Amino acid sequence: MSQPGESEMGERDERIERAGLSVDRTLVAFLEEEALPGTGIAAAPFWDGAAALLARFAPENRALLATRDRLQAKLDAWHAAHANQAAGGEAYADFLREIGYRVPEPAPFAIDPGAVDAELGRIAGPQLVVPVLNARFLLNAANARWGSLYDALYGSDAIPGAPDGPGYDPARGAAVIAWAKAFLDTAAPLAGGQRWAALRGAPEFADPAQRVGRAGETLLLRHHGLHIELVFDRDSPIGRADPAGLADVRLESALSTIVDLEDSVAAVDAADKVAAYRNWLGLMRGTLTATFSKDGRPMRRALAPDRAYLAPDGTSFTLPGRALLLVRNVGHLMTTPAVRLPDGGEAPEGLLDAIVTSLIALHDLRGAGPLRNSRAGAVYIVKPKMHGPEEAAFSNRLFDAVEDLLGLARHSIKIGVMDEERRTSVNLAACIHAVRHRIVFINTGFLDRNGDEIHSAMRAGPVCAKGAMKRASWLAAYEDRNVQIGLACGLAGRAQIGKGMWAAPDRMADMLAEKEAHPASGASTAWVPSPTAATLHATHYHRVDVAARQAARAQEPITPLAPLLTLPLAPAAGYAPAEIEAELENNAQGLLGYVVRWIDQGVGCSKVPDIHDIGLMEDRATLRISSQHIANWLLHGVVTAPAVEAALRRMAARVDAQNAGDPLYRPMGPAVETSLAFQAARALIFEGADQPNGYTEPLLHAFRRRAKARV
Ligand SMILES: CC(=O)SCCNC(=O)CCNC(=O)[C@H](O)C(C)(C)COP(=O)(O)OP(=O)(O)OC[C@H]1O[C@@H](n2cnc3c(N)ncnc32)[C@H](O)[C@@H]1OP(=O)(O)O
Ligand SMILES: O=CC(=O)O
Ligand SMILES: [Mg+2]
User: Fold this and answer.
1) What is the value of pTM for the model shown?
2) Which pLDDT score is estimated for 133?
3) Residues 119 and 167 in one domain
4) In this structure, are 494 and 608 located in the same domain?
5) Nearest by Cα to 134 from 288, 255, 28, 284
6) In a domain, 570, yes or no
7) Is 686 a known ligand-binding residue?
8) Domain-embedded: residue 631
9) Would you state the pLDDT for residue 225?
10) Do 557 and 485 share a domain, yes or no?
11) Distance 541 CA to ligand 1 centre (A)
């Protein structure tokens, strides 16, 4: 973030004036030559409107950030005066009310978001997230609406103990087929209690209404609102060997996909922002393609078409071939040098994202391209990291203004609210109320939420180890209250109640064992990191009847605030030196492994091995946790500065070794004093306690800009 008037070297030549704004040339060219044409909006009124919107909302945006700082300062002071108290009691709750951190509950209400696509409003199923800057992944994610269950099982560790010989292993294949047929016994039972494994001829279903169509020899079934394709093909190697001729089971998998401009990308300047916007434009126009080489073979990937079937009465129909796409904008914190305001200061990045991603979605709404995203005529924006109802109301008014700028009907821009900051969890009903006419989801972004929990409690004392945090009372209360409050606000059947990311992309057996808890909790969706995970997680929505779970949970009283407000402090006896060392090293390794690719290569989401060599998805939210955790232990003397420095150096060598095969990798170990990545990691820890709400973006952006300037 830079201050008004603080223009970067050489930046002036690269800029063009538009309606009093100083705009990077790349962005001007993109908007005027690529994004605006075809929308019916001319450049001049667009810039006039954008400038007016920025003038109106930028000061308010700044004021909201000042409120965050003011409230955090009050928390810090309270905690300093009540050191090592886990809080949660009446006095603490009253204090939060007095300082305006807690606001009155709204009277009972039900959300009313208008026309919403069924994937968000009515059908329960997985939600995939994908970084916007990677077109190859992006296309894969859009096409992840359908996935082969056989491939997902065969290509992952999903079946514990399945043999895995070189080439195609028939024993492994048999284990996959057995697993899938046992799954079909639940999702598509056969008449007379026959088992799928025993089927020899054509299937007869216990409920014939499940069979809703066919395409050639492929049968289309529906169960819990989700479709299943049974591919019968006796000409294929698998079908030929199968007594029933079943060659594959394809599941409707990622019902929706979030295209992420936020925590999984490194976008620090106009060039990065334009690359991100251009990919979103390619999706909204249906024209995005990617060419790459895989296993030595050239490949071209494009968006999948819709799928055609014949209904039992002979009429033809189609089903979506692609996930319903949402776009995650950045939050209210950062500013961008892509646009400078008349006072010379950078424009709030969230405002620019709202304008540009909505403008781009007009291409879909106008229906000019070959494919359609929203059949309901909506634009879906996920808004992360909002703190409390005032910020939600700000987003609501911002979206009103964007609708006016683009000539969109009121509330056609929908919002997904990430419940991932403590002040939002505490005031969740009021937050939902603030956006009740456009809300399409709430989601427990538990990773950021952990980071905010640590930062909120920064001065209260040392927090518990990360493993213990998973069992902390605040976390259970947060997850429970999110579902309970969502149901009380009428989200069932109208909007998603979502659960967070499965952050171990290679541990699919564990995911299969654990993530059924998400639909079982009444959540209608949960995040997955990959298409394979989407297909496997889809099986959970066949096993669990989410509507029934929601109806049951709607009867529960809402969990009180006290456990939510109980701080996750370390046990009074503290931890043994070996535990402290292991915790520090694990945090330092994940942090460095992520930061080095962010700073040196601009990669915003990575799979980084933890100390047990398990590859974990790391993004800015997990970085927020690890950096805040070390910063907290440093502040309270659990670890010393020299110990942190030594751990960082040891882990730098380990991370260097892990990346030895990457030709683009720049090792940190040999030159920690000149490695910008190492310095960024250091700053994230040693300046961590003072970062706004513990966010990592300000430091990451500053160091990445320096790294880009250096090459
Ligand atoms: C707290 C939060 O905010 S969570 C939300 C942000 N996080 C995310 O969005 C995570 C998304 N996931 C990812 O980015 C990746 O899966 C990572 C970084 C975790 C792992 O990436 P990699 O190590 O490259 O994955 P891996 O080698 O196992 O698999 C790559 C293959 O899977 C595909 N793939 C992996 N993740 C995704 C995805 N999210 N969407 C689409 N395709 C994906 C790739 O396209 C590739 O297939 P291809 O060769 O046919 O193109
Ligand atoms: O955005 C998701 C999170 O867990 O944070
Ligand atoms: Mg988050």
Assistant:
1) 0.97
2) 98
3) no
4) no
5) 288
6) no
7) no
8) yes
9) 98
10) yes
11) 22
134 shares its domain with 217? no
Residue 614 lies in a domain: yes
Active-site residue identified among 269, 364, 619, 656:
619
How many beta carbons lie within 10 A of that of residue 344, not counting itself?
A: 13
Which atom of ligand 1 lies nearest, measured to the CA of 384? Answer: 3
- Check residue 11 and give its pLDDT: 54
- Same domain, residue pair 134 and 158: no
Is 174 domain-assigned?
yes
User: Is 137 touching ligand 2 by the criterion CB < 6 Å?
Assistant: no
Which residue range forms the structural domain that includes residue 40?
Answer: 33-144+256-296+323-332+355-564
Question: Which residues lie below 8 Å from residue 260, measured CB to CB, with a gap of 6+?
Answer: 129, 130, 131, 132, 328
Last residue of a domain, one of 542, 564, 586: 564
ipTM of the complex: 0.99
Asked if residues 131 and 258 have their Cβ atoms less than 8 Å apart, the reply is no
User: What's the rounded Cα separation, in Å, for the pair 141 and 128?
Assistant: 7
> Contact at 8 Å (CB) between 328 and 3?
no
Asked if 328 is an active-site residue, the reply is yes
So what's the pLDDT on residue 368? 81
Single out the residue in 515, 532, 564 at which a domain terminates.
Answer: 564
CATH code of the domain covering residue 246: 2.170.170.11
For residue 256, say whether it is annotated as part of any ligand binding site: no
CATH code, domain carrying 697: 1.20.1220.12
> Is 447 a pocket residue for ligand 2 (Cβ < 6 Å)?
yes
All residues at 6 or more sequence positions from 677 whose CB lies less than 8 Å from its CB, including other chains: 592, 595, 596, 598, 599, 600, 666, 668, 703, 707
Choosing from 288, 300, 385, 530 the residue with most ligand 1 atoms within 8 A of its CB, the one to mutate for a pocket test is 530
18 is annotated as an active-site residue: no
Q: Supply the pLDDT for residue 13.
A: 67
- Centre of ligand 1 to C-alpha 351, Å, is 28
283 Cα–ligand 2 center, Å: 23
* Phi-psi domain of 666 (left: phi exceeds 0; alpha: psi -120 through 50; beta: other): beta
What residues contact 557, with CB distance under 8 A and at least 6 apart? 484
- Tell me which residues of the chain have a pLDDT lower than 50: 1-10
Residue 227 and residue 108 in one domain: no
Quick one: 541 and 586 in the same domain? no
Alpha helices in 229-343 (DSSP H): 237-241, 270-285
Q: Tell me what pLDDT residue 306 has.
A: 98
357 near 277, Cβ under 8 Å? yes
Q: Total structural domains in the chain?
A: 3
What is the whole-number distance in angstroms between the Cα of residue 275 and the centre of ligand 1?
A: 18
The helix (run of H) or strand (run of E) holding residue 299 is: strand 297-302
- Start-to-end CA distance of the chain, whole Å, equals 21
91-122 tens-digit pLDDT: 899 999 999 999 999 999 999 999 999 999 99
Residues 549 and 593 occupy one common structural domain:
no
CATH number of the domain residue 108 falls in:
3.20.20.360
